[in-house]
Amino acid sequence: MDITIKSLDGKDAGTVTLADEIFGLMPREDILQRMVRWQLAKRQQGTHSTLGRAEIARTGAKLYKQKGTGRARHGSARAPQFRGGGQAHGPKSRSHAHDLPKKVRQLALRHALSAKARTGSIVVIDDLTATDAKTKNMVSTFEGLGLANALFIGGSVLDVNFSRSARNIPNIDVLPIQGINVYDILRRHTLVLSKAAVEALEERFK
Q1: How many CB atoms lie within 10 A of CB 52?
Q2: pLDDT digits (tens, 9 = 90+) for 43-101
Q3: What is the value of pTM for the model shown?
Q4: Pairing verdict, β 2-6 and 12-17
Q5: Residue among 157, 166, 159 nearest 134 (CA)
Q6: In a shared domain, residues 41 and 107
Q7: DSSP SS3 for 24
Q8: Which of 35, 63, 90 corresponds to the end of one domain?
């Protein structure tokens, strides 16, 4: 699939052929869903925790005598039914991560790229660099390109001025090629790749 390369000022800068084995697949929603679920589960902190009855700092004495009161039999004020008692079956700190085969993860990335290509939501920029770190200038540049909700993927090293000027713009994300992932691709309307990013993807999947 051939696509026109643009410069940041909106001019044509040649064409590039996107490999069909990376950008020409028929996207499968089940694979994308599994990958997004894996990503979100992996980044969950899992630090929620409550105190059980064994962890409550409260007297261990019997509340009142066993017989003769006409009340129910109770032996501990730490029981969950009492105010100030422990939490029954409450959450504990744990990892929410689960396994997903590496081949499925690699396939999901190709399907996400293909999904963007199929809807015409991929833009290739010759070079993601800026002369100064001015957010105002970058906003006008993106408006000229028609980009209001986009993920920018640069080379292995991002241009400092470009990343600094773009990081405060709402709905704009900038990542190096090492950070490309399915969730960020799908959550933005447009995927913007630099020429270096396209070459790195083709090298990665060949």
Answers
A1: 16
A2: 999 999 999 999 999 998 999 999 999 999 999 999 999 999 999 999 999 999 999 99
A3: 0.82
A4: antiparallel
A5: 166
A6: yes
A7: coil
A8: 90
